[in-house]
């Protein structure tokens, strides 16, 4: 049972947003670019995403610092205009399927100067010398990420960056915030629904940055980045006031916070969850607060982006009762 | 002596950007709006700024939550296009003069829900009840801010928000970051020069949010906000790679950092200052680092905006030697 | 297989540290109190712990602010002196069994002024009014925590506070740090081994604060606090230089960090894990760093104590390879 | 006029706590060591302090990592027992005079691994290589710190570490917290009074770590450390409930906060100042909050210790009115 039931009923038209149709990938999420696609609530969209490096890192001998040119990182598909969406609505995006695409080795991860959880960065500014740059190319198929001769990791793909246009700002695709964006949250995976607040007329959905697998925190700054074919179904929910992204899986609801320091991301997510429990499921706010102290679950998305992202969730059996 | 000597030589044309010429005040700093004025390097601009509330808070009985409508806070003049400015240049802005304007009591400060250094906010999310809203209107003239029957504070005006367009993002006028923006730094005051990195063709300068006086940190979220007539002279410096705003006074150079947590703002500012000392004044980096441990000076701008801002500076006598 | 094999071989003597033997519970972890028990490496100890309130909150109508008197919070059993332990050793503590004890309803959780993840505190100092105080008493047995008529949560007990004496400091039992302490980490549960650095002669082990269950972050400041009978087996590992607590389960190794802001706790834990992987399991440091970016797992202990605590771990199959 | 008038009336006996009388310098502040001196309220004490390295760094070719042995850093004089002091009192310490002592070059500063505001540390844990170690020895007299051939800095000495014993903890002399400790705050200088909350019977005063001069933040981890002869006068104030250190100068009152992240230090200091203004000077709390937004002043002590320290103050003319 879905709490909201959106984006999972009868599916409308199926659109294909392939690389050719996208043409110009986007590097900010905002209301200023023209839509590349217009869809109706209920429609399915099959999206060809690029990897976070725009496919430009091809060899383990490549040097990211020579190839990548900021602010053109993390290319996004979109904006996708959703008919009838207006400020105050919520866009529900059901993630139906993610498969890898492109030539092998199609997976890429790397160490980039001033990016990563255990190095000085442009804001956690240090005088220490940077780590050496480093590129790893790995084979990825629909079952496994082949990390090394001795180790393979399950293919557990998710959308690293997904968000809607702010009302008037245009936010770098590298940034996660209340509009969604570069959250790097493994829960934005097939089978789940993400709810995003609509702030601009037409919603203007952007997505990209699909990860083949990722550890909590995306520690060294990159996951297994890879080009994908990602299928979503979008739907509109009217009259639902939400301020931050929310995610729903088969057995759990989750609120998402993105901020620095990391405790503020946790505060955002948990307060939003308390309010969600109170407003829609009839919990008393203080009782919900105390209950989450017993059974809330936190998942760290990233500890490397301009904001850190995590989700705070509760199992539906705890939300609705199990006795 | 100015380290850079910019924006203080022979002044070119004088332009007037009054309310009528500005017409639509701006709420994001980006490359997407058309310039309201075009100037040449060396030109003077007399700007009529609104207060941070767009003049909409008129009475002490007003309720900010009913009057202010986000994201339309902190209206900015601009964009002002600077002829010939291109990515990689630096725009030097000499602040020549600030005087108050408008009907008395023309100064406004207030308590706004979820804004302030000692209250829960949208990101430092709390369950506690908010403080009551509160508005203070105060008389401001060119000498004093008349706080109460018993207390007046010197009129020490400065520009709360000043910044250039990012290359592709468009950033809310409420946010301070590497482009400048809502820094609330008392050092952006008459007599000083602020250096900002040009990232978009034409620089696209925005400014507003002039404060009649302000405490360190802008503790309750607002200073004495007031409409002003602000006079600046702009100049271009070619081939100077800076990443964050820098400020120069008669006797001091200062680097500016904006980030959360606050220590990252301090790290940004101090590292930039180390690099400035090394690159332009011949100091050894580690010697500069150790010297600042003995005579660096920090000024806290705000502890209430989406990023906190502070400056780290050194006296020129310590920079150049005094023996 | 245990990476270290400690504390799980032939067990020595069994000691009982019941309430009477403990007599004076301790509120700081340090070298200044006399041991209440002396054991040899390999010995088993059955410990009667009090709940975090020293059993003083008995009724839902109790007011914590009238009952609790700081700094006497979170009473600890100990110090337990371990024969032969000296600075530079590691104490391995295998957690064998935890069962609840005491009269029903033996579980307690409550809202305390200036404690909790979504309220202002003594350090995240706010002017907002505090939330109302609130006490919940719940029945706890070896299977369930009976939260309400509609909801029961599995009994998943763990040791909330466990640590060794620092060399010369004496640290409040409310604080988690590199000596262990009030980590509130669900991974210190039956079946797991915790490794702690010995800093004082005799190790001086303290423990208490057993939780019947807890959500990630211990959001409202308290878990289901309850008196327990906790059985541990202690062992010594010589010549193992560790700086922070480490935990080992059947299928995972985990490093623990406690700090503010929360990202520093994550940095501590993840850096320690990188070093553990490099020093003991032959991984290249940078390769380990990149691998954890793909499969590291973070568990948030608390976001409410003087330091925040989390663990960062890796599955043994990923550590040793699975192909 | 002093708000509290303490520690500045008729002075009682003068005691001398020289190196010989101190004998064992202390590395934690707590109630467990025997007093080295007993004084009465009103007494003067002339204290011979060591530098923060215990005088062990003698040459610029010394390597701190080979010489310094943690946790034995920052040696303190004390504990000094104050007759009649009991929990709930406040100890007022008037700093009368500081002069340098010892052989030239008697000033020392250095770069130490994992210490400093622009390097990774044990808690802001990084994988980057450390900076090189570096020692600077400088001549210090009662007028100047002779930094280099071209630069001398004024001798502006202050007490880097001063604090009272906690009730039951014993806190490392490297740590600043609510008991005082390693605050590195230039306002603890001759002419000022520092107020500290008494928590243990006899107060147990510790001090040391005198700096010849220091920049805001003590950026590289050390100021100009030097041995000193420091003269203080102590007094008791009964029935004054304070939770954090407070400082009073001729023209200003200041509250002190020590915490991480830095914004929490600012919140602590500013909230305490609001409460001080309300409780003792008759200000309305919300009016005080708004007034500090116009004229509060922050001074950053350190951004390098286990907690960061800063003060928030207000001029007495603004406190009492100036019209």
UniProtKB/TrEMBL annotation, chains A, B, C, D:
- UniProt-recorded name of the protein: Acetamidase
Q: In which domain of life is the source organism classified?
A: Bacteria
Q: Which GO terms describe its molecular function?
A: hydrolase activity, acting on carbon-nitrogen (but not peptide) bonds, in linear amides
Query: Which species is this record about?
Result: Antarcticimicrobium luteum
Matching SUPFAM superfamilies, A to Z?
Acetamidase/Formamidase-like
In Pfam terms, one family for this protein is FmdA_AmdA
């Amino acid at each position: 049972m879905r709490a909201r039931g959106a984006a999972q009923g009868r599916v409308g038209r199926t659109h294909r947003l392939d690389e050719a149709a996208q043409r110009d990938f986007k590097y900010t999420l905002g209301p200023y670019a023209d839509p590349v696609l217009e869809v109706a609530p209920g429609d399915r969209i099959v999206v060809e995403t690029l990897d976070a490096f725009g496919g430009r890192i091809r060899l383990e001998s490549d040097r990211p610092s020579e190839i990548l040119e900021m602010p053109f990182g993390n290319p996004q598909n979109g904006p996708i205009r959703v008919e009838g969406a207006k400020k105050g609505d919520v866009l529900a995006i059901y993630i139906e399927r993610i498969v890898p695409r492109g030539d092998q080795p199609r997976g890429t991860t790397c160490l980039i100067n001033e990016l990563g959880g255990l190095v000085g960065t442009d804001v956690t500014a240090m005088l220490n010398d940077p780590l050496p740059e480093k590129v790893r190319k790995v084979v990825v198929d629909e079952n496994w990420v082949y990390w090394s001769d001795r180790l393979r990791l399950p293919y557990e793909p998710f959308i690293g960056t997904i968000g809607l246009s702010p009302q008037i700002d245009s936010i770098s695709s590298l940034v996660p915030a209340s509009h969604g964006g570069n959250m790097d949250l493994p829960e934005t995976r097939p089978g789940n629904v993400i709810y995003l607040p609509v702030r601009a007329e037409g919603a203007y959905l952007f997505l990209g940055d699909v990860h083949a697998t990722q550890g909590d925190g995306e520690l060294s700054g990159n996951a297994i980045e890879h080009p994908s074919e990602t299928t979503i179904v979008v739907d509109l929910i009217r009259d639902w006031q939400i301020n931050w992204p929310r995610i729903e899986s088969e057995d759990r609801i989750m609120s998402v916070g993105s901020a620095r320091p990391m405790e503020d991301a946790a505060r955002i997510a948990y307060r939003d969850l308390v309010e969600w429990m109170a407003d829609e499921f009839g919990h008393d706010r203080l009782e919900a607060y105390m209950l989450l102290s017993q059974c809330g679950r936190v998942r760290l998305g990233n500890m490397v982006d301009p904001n850190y992202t995590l989700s705070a969730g509760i199992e539906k059996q705890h939300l609705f009762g199990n006795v």
